[in-house]
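Risk register update: the risk of archive-format incompatibility is retired. Evidence:
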Amino acid sequence: MKPDLAIEAFSALSQPTRLEAFRLLVKQEPDGLPAGEIARRLDVPHNTMSTHLAILARAGLVSVERQSRTMIYRVELKTMRKLVMFLLKDCCNGQPELCAPLIDEISKSCSNSGACCE
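Archived output:
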């Protein structure tokens, strides 16, 4: 991942409502959620939530699919994986055993939540 794309993703996630929307959508993988349901669960007006979702989509963190009259949002796991790998690319300076606890924690988290980072 190029640094400018990582910065755009981090910028999109640096706002509380967008961060919570992203975290909510991670929990809903692979089904996603309708925009109205995201707004309802986060107690955010629909038009405000639409703006936040558009910012997340422009950053490549979520995708949207129209199903009849409903817009379904899903996390882009591929982008999330690239972002994490961007952060960890040079992790541990060639000593993978130092990163093992981090990898184990991520694996356990994915197993417990049902969402996976593949």
